[in-house]
Design goal:
Elements (H helix, E strand, L loop, with lengths): L4 E5 L2 H11 L3 E5 L5 E2 L7 E2 L5 E2 L2 E2 L1 H14 L5 E3 L5 H15 L9 E3 L7 H9 L6 H28 L10 H17 L4 E10 L5 E9 L2 E2 L8 H12 L3 E13 L7 H12 L3 H13 L1 E3 L2 E3 L14 H15 L34 H4 L5 H17 L4 E12 L4 E12 L14 H5 L17 E10 L8 H11 L7 H10 L3 E4 L2 E4 L1 H13 L6 H15 L5 H17 L6 H16 L20 E6 L2 E6 L8 E3 L5 H6 L5 E5 L6 E7 L2 E6 L9 E4 L11 H8 L3 E5 L6 E7 L2 E6 L2 E4 L11 H9 L11 E5 L6 E7 L2 E6 L2 E4 L11 H38 L10 H30 L6 H5 L9 H7 L20
Parallel strand pairs: 1-2, 1-7, 7-8
Antiparallel strand pairs: 3-6, 4-5, 9-10, 9-17, 10-11, 10-16, 12-15, 13-14, 15-16, 18-19, 20-21, 21-22, 23-24, 24-25, 25-26, 27-28, 28-29, 29-30, 31-32, 32-33, 33-34
């Protein structure tokens, strides 16, 4: 192939696209990512040999490298066209080093080319302006790779020796894990605080409704906790109802809202998570495909620019094209007088790349949607809209604040609202937020009717609302990436892998898009903070990122950075050599005690052993991991696992019944159980005379982590939400056959899956009920009038089996041959009373039969046999004996299994270490656990997701 040039890229998709742009004088081959890496063994980085590094070709890479080497032999120039970032520079360096080591290629001419987008013009411009491989970027890569290797291969063996069951640790992902664990500890330590707010409803003099809230009382501004309880709220409510109100002040001001900058890697991951529900890895996978090229009517085109970037600036050509699209699509008034210029505030932003944008802004989502799959179309639409919006005119809002004052001047209310005067960029794009405070901001954006100072504002209703402070929310992928970026930890290309590795190692799990630390992850974090605190500090990790940036900028030698790090790190490792496992256990038991042994509602000692009663529970370590055990071992062999039971065991019900705690009022045990219709809560155990109280566990509650306070609240449902503002009838919230609901005057409405039956408030309940389809009432064939005793209406209706007369809930069929038009009130009353009497008699007969059946079959029931009342005494006796024999034979293993379940001992660590489970539980309790729970769909299976290497 003499005379041809060779172009090396990472992926075959990228190679296919570029090959079409360059023509017959070029051959494009893919390296398929990195061609070599550090072998996963000791000695790949040698600190004592000036940090010499040993590289090896991957098994998959050998074939690709051979093909590239063969093609390079006859090439005039080898163009290294890998991605325009630090990692891409490293791949080019590796390819160059491998080829130069091959026979006949030592004098081959290598050129480095970069382009931010895969378009014909960008690729050809890069070919025309080649450069050498940037050694400073390569050295920054080498330093990062060496650091990650040294931490992983030096610290992980310490974990294995001192913390059995731990998998590994890493320089960056251990810090991310610490963030998740610390947030969980904040949530556990959080104690809710009650407070109240009071909202009012008024009308203007023209009769138009609007709402306000109480802000001042007796000349004092009311802060969040100034209405601390129901008593204070009730007193203020009564004062408000006794007053008349007038409009004291109306303030108006114009406000501008500016558009958001175009996407960086992290902001794209955050918005794709919030708007599209994508994980970080899914976002990068889809973006990679859009970047490398999509076939549009036979032409392969890269639709977006490079998707790993910290930059928020746009090329001048892109700005000009974007402004042209805005003018053409929305009008000149949506184009600002001068282009918007964005500059990154991040002090450690990577090399000067563009933001993520469409390669051609004129290529709207509608034009390319038919060429894309669903995920690609949604992500491209998001990127295109954000880019267009970032160059649009600001939105203009008219904001209004109205103060209302009581007749005696002691109480002040405020109504706020805004009107979008000019939508500007909001016509195209609004950003989603995780901040709960944004929900409160919605109240400030309501539209208010026209009002003027001095006008009356008649009070129509007063609504006191109870609130409780909420703990900080668990991290989502979006908020975790945002926090890592704020702290300066990691880089755009690493966020997805950090999150993936954490899940792969079972250090965290994701439920309802939120991160929960596994016990294994918390133990690893506690160990690192106790013995390697410096290396999981946020500031230290961020400062190391800055040092790596200094290397890429040519400000410091890369081996100097490695030496400074290694001296201190190696000393910390050496200090753990004489560390005893018992010392580690004591430290972890002390640090994690509040998590594993939280205070009990009834004041009992949470560390008291439930088996031997005088033993103390504590953290224990075995070869296969950590578990909870008794201090009286081996005399007492009680154990309890730390790890969360896997999804399969949950689905099969093997993890249940799970003991949640003890009800402080009744002294009965609260348990989570698995029935044929899903998970449910149970208070106490069943007896011959009474069934225990039960409540379905909603899908948004995890059966393995639901706590006692929540369980008791669910068992107490339904609860009163408040009185409906229109008719003052009670609104209640509860759980029924079809899940959580709100109810008002016979109308039911399901509560959405992402909302909580225990916390849903008055305003939301009223909104849901307004969306409910009213129950269709049957129209009577004929109305007879009011019942002579209670005045309730009596009517004749058409039923499936013929006409019937109805009074309240009592319905009586008309006798055969009786025409509805001929029935009199007296006859109707006679039919109704007869129906009511027969219904009462039926209930009494049924109750009597039930009691008789119980008396007759009590012995059989105790033996575990269901016996029909009509069987002969001989049959009953035989059945009872047989059942008793079976029960006796199975009693011991059943008792052991029930005991383990009651202690939360599904798959005990004791089984791994040789210890056996202690304790007994009656067969009656075992039988009760198998009884079906309420007719409610089962809980979600625990999802296991993934960290970095």
């Amino acid at each position: 192939m003499s005379g041809e040039n060779l172009v090396i890229v990472e992926s075959p998709a990228k190679a296919k696209t570029i090959n079409k742009y360059l023509g017959s004088g070029y051959k494009v081959l893919a390296s398929y990512g990195h061609v070599r890496d550090l072998p996963p063994k000791d000695g790949s980085v040698r600190p004592d040999d000036d940090f010499a590094m040993e590289w090896e070709l991957g098994d998959r890479s050998k074939k690709h490298v051979s093909e590239i080497a063969e093609a390079a032999k006859g090439a005039d120039i080898v163009y290294l066209a890998t991605d325009p970032d630090r990692e891409g520079e490293a791949i080019s360096w590796h390819v160059q080093e491998v080829l130069r080591s091959r026979r006949g290629l030592a004098k081959t001419s290598f050129k480095r080319i970069v382009f931010n987008e895969i378009t014909s013009s960008a690729v050809n411009a890069a070919i025309a302006n080649p450069r050498e491989v940037n050694q400073e970027l390569v050295e920054a890569y080498l330093a990062r790779r060496a650091l990650d290797y040294l931490v992983g291969f030096t610290l992980s063996p310490v974990l294995w020796r001192k913390l059995p069951g731990a998998k590994s640790a890493g320089r960056v992902q251990s810090v991310a894990l610490r963030l998740i664990c610390e947030r969980e500890a904040e949530i556990e330590d959080f104690r809710p605080r009650e407070y109240w707010s009071i909202e009012t409803r008024h009308t203007t003099v023209e009769g138009q409704p609007f709402g306000a809230r109480l802000t001042h009382a007796d000349g004092k501004k009311l802060d969040r906790f100034d209405i601390p309880d129901e008593k204070t709220a009730t007193e203020l409510t009564e004062r408000l109802r006794a007053q008349s109100f007038g409009i004291a002040k109306v303030e108006r001001k114009e406000a501008k809202r500016n558009p958001y900058p175009p996407f960086t890697t992290s902001t794209l991951q955050q918005e794709a998570s919030r708007k599209l529900g994508f994980s970080a890895s899914q976002t990068m996978r889809v973006a990679q495909r859009l970047y490398e090229g999509i076939s549009l009517d036979g032409e392969t085109v890269g639709l977006i620019t490079y998707m790993r970037t910290d930059g928020i600036q746009l090329a001048q050509e892109a700005i000009t094209q974007t402004r042209s699209v805005i003018a053409r699509s929305f009008g000149d008034n949506y184009v600002p007088s001068s282009p918007r210029v964005y500059k990154s505030k991040a002090k450690n932003a990577q090399e000067a790349h563009e933001a993520i944008r469409p390669t051609d802004p004129a290529r709207s989502p509608d034009k390319v949607r038919r060429f894309l799959d669903s995920d690609q179309a949604r992500l491209y639409d998001l990127i295109w809209k954000r880019t267009i919006a970032c160059q649009m005119e600001s939105a203009i809002l008219d904001q209004v604040a109205v103060d209302l004052i009581s007749a005696d001047k002691s109480l002040t209310l405020r109504a706020t609202g805004s009107i979008v005067k000019f939508d500007g960029f909001l016509r195209v794009y609004t950003e989603d937020r995780d901040d709960p405070a944004d929900d409160e901001k919605e109240n400030d954006e309501r539209r208010l009717p026209p009002m003027a100072e001095g006008q009356d504002a008649p009070l129509k209703a007063v609504d006191p609302n109870q609130h409780f402070t909420q703990p900080p929310p668990r991290y989502t992928e979006a908020s975790l990436v945002k926090r890592l970026e704020e702290l300066g930890i990691g880089r755009p290309s690493t966020y997805a892998s950090i999150i993936q590795v954490l899940q792969d190692r079972d250090y965290v799990r994701i439920e309802k898009k939120r991160f929960y630390p596994e016990d294994r992850g918390r133990i690893v974090t506690a160990f690192l903070q106790s013995y390697f605190h410096r290396y999981v500090e946020y500031d230290f990790t961020a400062s190391m990122e800055e040092r790596l940036d200094d290397i890429s900028g040519g400000h410091i030698d890369w081996k100097t950075v490695l030496r400074e790090f290694w001296v201190e790190f190696h000393r910390a490792i050496e200090q753990t050599k004489d560390l005893k496992v018992s010392d580690v256990i004591d430290a972890l038991d002390r640090d994690l005690g509040p998590h594993f042994f939280p205070p009990q509602e009834n004041g009992a000692d949470p560390r008291r052993c439930p088996s031997c009663a005088d033993g103390r529970l504590g953290l224990k370590l075995a070869r296969t991991g950590a578990f909870i055990g008794c201090s009286n071992y081996p005399d007492c062999r009680f154990t309890r696992p730390l790890e969360v039971v896997d999804a399969e065991k949950i689905a099969e019900g093997e993890a249940f019944p799970r003991h949640v705690g003890t009800d402080p009022e009744s002294g009965l045990d609260v348990t989570v159980r698995k029935g044929p219709f899903g998970f449910y809560l149970q208070l106490g155990e069943a007896t011959e005379d009474q069934k225990p109280k039960r409540a379905s566990l909603p899908k948004n509650y995890e059966p393995l982590t639901v706590d006692l306070e929540t369980a008791l609240a669910l068992l107490a449902l339904p609860r009163t939400v408040g009185n409906h503002p229109e008719d003052q009838k009670t609104i209640s919230a509860g759980i029924g056959r079809f899940g959580p609901y709100v109810r008002h005057a016979g109308t039911y409405k399901s509560i959405p899956a992402d909302e909580d039956v225990l916390t849903i408030g008055m305003n939301r309940a009223v909104q849901l009920l307004s969306e409910a389809t009213p129950r269709k009432q049957a129209e009577p064939l004929r109305e007879l009038g009011a019942h002579p005793e209670d005045g309730e209406p009596v009517g004749i209706f058409k039923g499936r089996y013929g006409p019937y007369v109805k009074h309240g809930k009592v319905m009586a069929s008309l006798p055969k041959g009786t025409e509805p038009d001929e029935l009199t009130m007296d006859s109707a009353v006679t039919l109704i009373e007869a129906k009511r009497a027969s219904a009462g008699k039926g209930k009494a007969t049924k109750s009597k039969a039930a009691k008789t059946g119980t008396a007759k079959t009590g012995t059989a029931k105790k033996a575990g046999t269901r016996t029909a009342a009509t069987k002969t005494a001989a049959t009953k006796t035989a059945a009872t004996k047989t059942a008793a024999t079976k029960t006796g034979a199975a009693k011991k293993p059943a008792a052991k299994k029930a005991a383990g379940a009651k202690a939360g001992n599904v798959k005990t660590a004791a089984s791994k270490t040789g210890a056996s489970t202690a304790g007994t539980k009656s067969a009656t309790s075992k039988k009760t656990a198998a009884k079906p729970g309420p007719a409610q769909a089962g809980g979600d299976a625990v999802s296991a997701d993934t960290e970095e290497s």
